[in-house]
Design a protein that fits this description.
This protein is of the alpha/beta class. It is built from eleven helices and 19 strands.
Length: 360
């Protein structure tokens, strides 16, 4: 064998060894994010809505809470390493949904921004639109049936089905189905019964695994026919503790309990995170077991506040007359003349006498 042949053979051996060392594991991955599966963050923003969805390093934001929650939402997104929002949805123009959206749009690169074709004459709405224009973004109106990609997940628009709901702004909410493998998540904003009826007529199957309760768990939404079609195993309710609306209402909670649905609540549990590999869905906490409606929570809170106030006030003394009174007495002194005691015994020890007109 001559020298040239030997060199050729050696070169071929070296080439084979080089190619053999380049396995698929060493090749550049399709996604450099290092993440797999899909995660849905139902962010606790008090009495409002905000959901962050991540799939393969791609992010989608649905609503951003009230005006005073913009900075908190920004911080949460930063904690999740968000750099760009591929999809942004402002479900409808109410402040508890889009109030913080201008902050998110301003601080993060955004792809498609979707809001209903329903202009609102409010500062909150104008702030969002002004920010979109300032960033040279384009506003996209929802079209029922249209789908968008979020990594390997599919996002399908299911509402609003029309713009004939009069002044009921809730019914213009943008609704979406998010599907990853065999796992499906349903969102309907604040859509109420009339809009739910139209969603059921649009021909899109809303069968889901997880449903974010419409309108913060209100009795005016989440109708039985809608739940029958959705058949969720899990329901997440986004609302504020002791909110003025009594959300979630007992009617929905009783219905969900009778159906054996597992419920998660931001008012009780804070931010709820669901993750799925396309087959199995897991949560960052156990389901709520209280089944307390917002009306009950509010009532209990009011009673507790009243009790705390009574205990705080206790017995009221008059520094000038050296008389003491109960809080219900009609002869209570001016605030600047008051001194507070925990008990009559303490007041007497301090040299005060009981008011003759006091009923206590």
């Amino acid at each position: 064998m001559n020298r040239k042949n030997i060199i050729r053979i050696l070169l071929m051996i070296m080439l084979c060894l080089f190619l053999g060392g380049c396995s698929e594991e060493d090749a550049e991955p399709a996604s450099t994010s290092g993440k797999s599966g899909l995660s849905v963050h139902y962010v606790d923003v008090g009495q409002g809505d905000c959901t962050l969805i991540e799939c393969g390093g791609h992010y989608m934001l649905i609503d951003a809470g009230n005006n005073n929650k913009g900075t908190a939402v920004k911080s949460y997104l930063e904690s999740q390493k968000v750099k760009k929002l591929d999809l942004v949805i402002g479900t409808h123009g109410d402040a508890d949904h889009i109030g913080g959206l201008d902050v998110a749009i301003y601080n993060f690169d955004c792809g498609t921004i979707i809001m209903p074709d329903r202009k609102r004459d409010t500062k909150t709405y104008r702030d969002v639109i002004d920010t979109i224009e300032q960033k040279n973004y384009k506003l996209t109106y929802p079209k029922v049936g249209k789908t968008y990609s979020l990594g390997d997940a599919k996002v399908q628009i299911i509402a609003p089905c029309n713009y004939e709901y009069g002044n009921n702004e809730n019914n213009y909410s943008v609704g979406v189905l998010v599907t990853y493998g065999e796992s499906t998540f349903l969102f309907a904003g604040d859509a109420e019964e009339e809009a739910e009826e139209d969603i059921l007529k649009n021909g899109i199957d809303i069968d889901c695994d997880v449903f974010k309760a419409s309108h913060h768990g209100s009795r005016t939404a989440n109708s039985e026919p809608f739940l029958d079609a959705a058949l969720p195993e899990y329901v997440v309710i986004s609302c504020g503790e002791g909110n003025d609306y009594g959300h979630p209402h007992s009617e929905l909670l009783n219905e969900l309990r009778s159906r054996g649905v597992k419920v998660f609540r931001t008012d009780e549990q804070g931010t709820v995170v669901a993750t799925t590999d396309g087959k199995t869905i897991t949560f960052n906490m156990s389901p709520s077991e209280s089944w307390l409606s917002g009306e009950q929570v509010k009532s209990d809170k009011e009673l507790s506040d009243e009790k705390d106030t009574e205990e705080e006030i206790g017995i009221i003394g008059n520094k000038t007359s050296k008389k003491y009174h109960t809080k219900n007495c009609g002869s209570l002194p001016m605030e600047e003349n008051r001194v507070y005691f925990d008990s009559e015994k303490e007041a007497k020890k301090a040299g005060y006498e009981k008011c003759g007109k006091c009923n206590g």
